[in-house]
Structures
1.
Amino acid sequence: MRTIIDLPESDRETLDALSQQLGISRAEAVRRAVAEFLKSHRSASNEELFGIWRNRNEDALDYEDRVRDEWNRR
């Protein structure tokens, strides 16, 4: 997918210099930056959810079965 973005001239120049130094295209540098941005935000979300059932007295699978039974009764 092609996307048009507006960057300040100084950022574009720095991006071009770094891309050239790494031997990659400007587009590849932007793709990598977007991938890192998305990865860092997904990871934070996963970290927040890890251990969410830790303090519950009910097993997660038992809970799932109970909720599904409620759906089936409707």
Note: The chain has three helices and no strands.
2.
Amino acid sequence: MTTTLTPTTIITDPRQRAGVLITVSLALMMVVSGVSGLNVALPELAADTGATQTDIQWIVDSYTVTLAGLLYISGAIGDRFGRKYLLVAGLIIFGGAAAAAFLTSDPTTLIVIRAIMGVGAAAVMPTTLSIITSSFPEEKRGSAVGLWVGVAGAGAVLGLVMSGLLLEWFSWSSFFGLNVALAALALIGALVLVPNSVDEHPPALDVVGGLLSLIFVAGLVFGIIEGPVEGWTSPRTLVALGLGVLAGVIFVWWEARQREPLLDPRLFRLRGFSTGSASNTVQFFAAFGFFFVAMQYLQFVIGWSPLQAALGMLPMAVVLIPLARNAPHISKSFGYNRVGSSGLFLMAVGFGVLSLITVDLRYWLFVIGLILFGAGMALAGSPATTAITESLPAAKQGVASATNDTSREFGSALGIAILGSVLNNVYRSDVSAATASLPPEAAEAAESSVAAAQQLGVAAGPQGAELVASANDAFVSGATASLWTGAGVLILAAIFVFVRAPRKR
């Protein structure tokens, strides 16, 4: 095992390579499931902690905001100071924060802790891939990267199922116990097996660019999440949105003038780079926005257990995983612009079918929507990543990898924020008629979340049945509106990819 800090540390021992691959796969699964797995626990978490719908959005999205906002700068830190050091530091931060989350039940504290977990995840995610590309022999690198891509995709669904299994017997906090276990296992592997390495010519640390990217993501997400509660024209909402947009504009201006930028804005002139990034962003916008909405619908409205809800999503993975393996070949045969746009359009059709949900689940129809959505994501996903990586030379593959990761996490953060806010806005509007006769404090609680409305209705006995029914109807209306919003975004992205993406086969 090599622990010396060197520019090139190639692992020649097959057993060590296998151990390193298992280690980085565990670390990557920890990061990905940290986004998806919590969705299963949200209904129980909301009921137990009294979290509002806005609190729930922030508990999920504070993680993705810091993760997306810090990916570029953390990759540069690893290249300069050592990838193993950054991986170990990220695992310690993530695991320590998860342990703190396991011990708390206050929504505000959870939001802060989840943001800290996102800092750790931002250190871990790009490092897992760069360790493979820097320490595996060239002939072994392709298959290892392929496994990395598979874990990145399957980790989201596995996170749902693992969380569902835990919640069958334990409380919602057991999700954070799973995070601690994964972090501990990966940390042991990192300390024992992973070699350290740096770039021979590491990029300069663009701290200003890193800070601007974080403010950009945080400002936009804050404004979008708080809008339904504070009002879209309230000073708080407008300042947050304005700050986010301003930070984004300054980021572009700043990066265009750096000799070694975190992200050169001129790269988006490349057709493959721009369309691949846009496609990735919209795919994960739709997928994680859908997970956020669907897990609550299946548990709050339909009454399924966490495990039933997680298993109910598996048809999407059944079609997504095998089709994703063949998507690159399909793309080569028919052209990226055709296959990528078809995948996005198929995802939109899936959302259209899923929007037919009611308070009485027709699962066969739900499955059709899941299959269409999963097939579309498989067709759009691999070609988008390929379009990004093939747009840049070998010396710029670090930028390509960081952009691929950041576009996905940025899309996840926006999807949870925007689709969650559409859900929240419609729910609050529709349920208000049923809460008009309630005392002001009870009415505000019922309008803040479907969990609170159901608890108030159950506590009121037979007289509360109307409130529960109205809350369920309002939630379904909000979920339907969010799905149609997602479908519209997917269709616009499909048109953009078809018109702009490379047509080469």
Note: The mean pLDDT is 85.
3.
Amino acid sequence: MMSSRTLTVAAAQLGAIQLATPRSQVINRMLKLLDRAKQSEVRLVVFPELALTTFFPRHIIQDPGEVAKYFEPESAEDPAALLKNDNTRPLFHRARDLGIDISFGYGERWSDKDGKLTDYNTMIYYSAKSNAVLAKYRKVHLPGTKEPVRKPDHAEQLEKMFFAPGDLGFQAFRVPGLVDGTLTARDGDATPQSATEGQGDPILGMLLCNDRRWPEAWRCYGLQGVELVLEGYNTCGYAPQRPGTEKEQEELAVFHHRLSCQAGSYQNACFSIHCAKAGYEDGGLLIASSMIVAPSGRVIAESTTSDDELVVAQINLADCRYYKEGVFNFEKHRRVEHYGRIVEQTGVQEVPLLAGESV
């Protein structure tokens, strides 16, 4: 029988952040949530997408100097700049002192070795034990438009204008020391991989908001043996151009959110933590429903407000094995010879029309 691989995790939901809210105020709210997490013996806290600022892609901001205010500078020459950044340093210091790993989203302004700047919607994983960023993910599935729509009663969604699509793909990673009693490569040198699966340091992956709706993203992680997926989101609950009342739209947005998170966890036999920025932000409604999902697809903890809230659950990563070795045993049941269309084709190509007279 698989030994227990338990840990206590949390989604640190944030209430609304307004355009004029200073970073320092946001960081203070995040620090309070970390302190609460320590009281519950949490080992890992997940914060939302773009956790440090308002969801600025709802605004038409074209002044380069103004746009720059919403991004954290990083570079090929100094990839650890985020740890030393005046905005974020207090967050990392508190996490380190409390012994809590954290993951959060932010706007990244990346300077490559040639000095070229590229802006990404980014999420990182920080290990308190290592005092280092172990992994970075850049959002792949950017929604919205590249140019403003500029119509009355139309909510803008300009992620394609502000960000480049992520270039790091869906690379899973292990987190050393997150659970006790794990196997290392040295322990398993002479052991077949099948005999060590589910016994090493936990395997994690990250997604951001719209990514959770795309099964391809989840499956890329599932094929790497992912046990825990972390996702932050800022999801619109109401847009005037969409059909339905505000209440109807919000209910549908939450339904689609739950559907995506629960299906992704179940179909890839993993736990997942989903963390919202919620409430009325600059007049725009963002859904709440931060949640923690089991490999069964069941929601095991969920937020009850649209404010700053800590959603806590104890999980046992060993529970993933039942599904990874059963209905979602990929090695036994996948038929890759029939999946070519998924990577060979991007848009829809309808089946040809039937011959004959029009009806």
Note: The radius of gyration is 21 Å.
